Amino acid sequence: MRIYLLFLGYIFGLLLLAAALVPWAHPALFAHLGLEPASSLYRLAMLAALLALPWFLQRIRLNSWEAAGFTAPRTEGWRQLGLGFLAGCAILAVLAVAETLTGMHHLAIPASKATAAYVAKTIVSGALSGLAVGLIEETFFRGLMQTGLRRSMAFWPSALLIATLYAALHFVKPEPLGDNPFDHAHAFSMLFGGFARLTEASVFADSLTTLFVAGVFFCMIRERTGSVVWAIGIHAGWVMSIKLFKYLTDPTLVDGAPSPWIAGGYDHVTGWLATLWLSAVAWIYWRVSSPAIRTASDAHQTGR
């Protein structure tokens, strides 16, 4: 639990630091990058996290490729990434087909975008953004954090803690507070307002639950394979597939609202149907897989 609290302190501490710095930095970020206040806050937090990460990892003894989950040789790692990507696409394809056949989504491609070039651009940009998101999130959560927690905790408590944080952070979204001057009071109010959204979790409970199940599933993959690369590949496949699905379809509205099975409002893909499907995938994976490969976290626990 100590490692978990240290990770929480690292995340929230850097968000507080970003809120303290953003009133001074935002004018330059807006002038050169066109960023809105909330985007400026997040970019500063990410930059601070990147700069502070080597020091933080050294302090908690996680400063190695093995601790981050990169345990496979290079050739095997590329194979895992590719197969994981294909698996992620297949998992989301089943969900996409189900949501389309049941009428939750319908084909809706604007005429201006109904070209092979635009489809290819969507696939490539989705794959690249998916790889970036998968690399960052899986390395941090299922790589470093899971290794740290597994030194002193059993798998299930560590997986539940990681998945809870992973899902909750997707809904901490600071929003600007009107046209008030962007000073320190505004910046901190914006940040704390983002955290206050979690008190209204019932509004997005369906999408929150989907992301929680996804987080547990990724922890299962890391535990069973000992490598974070599989999770990176699957995560990238999911992101690319969701982007392509949203390009090809729109949610079908009934009385002005999408189906309650996908109505979380997060991306109109996640929801109760996605939760049921990912839960089934995770359960099957846990039943048929086996911890044949000794994980890096196990090696840390035994001191070998």
Please characterize this protein's 3D structure.
This protein has 304 residues and is mainly α. It has a domain at 68-173 and 198-302. Helix content is 69%, strand content 2%. The protein has 10 helices and 2 strands. The protein has helices spanning 2-33, 37-59, 74-101, 116-150, 155-169, 184-196, 205-225, 229-248, 272-288, 296-302; strands spanning 105-107, 249-251. The chain has a two-stranded antiparallel ribbon with strand order 1-2. α1 packs across α6, α3 runs parallel beside α8 (229-248) and α4 (116-150) crosses α7. The longest helix is centred in the middle third of the chain and has 35 residues, at 116-150. It is globular, with a radius of gyration of 20 Å. The two termini are 22 Å apart. Residues 293-304 have low confidence and may be disordered.
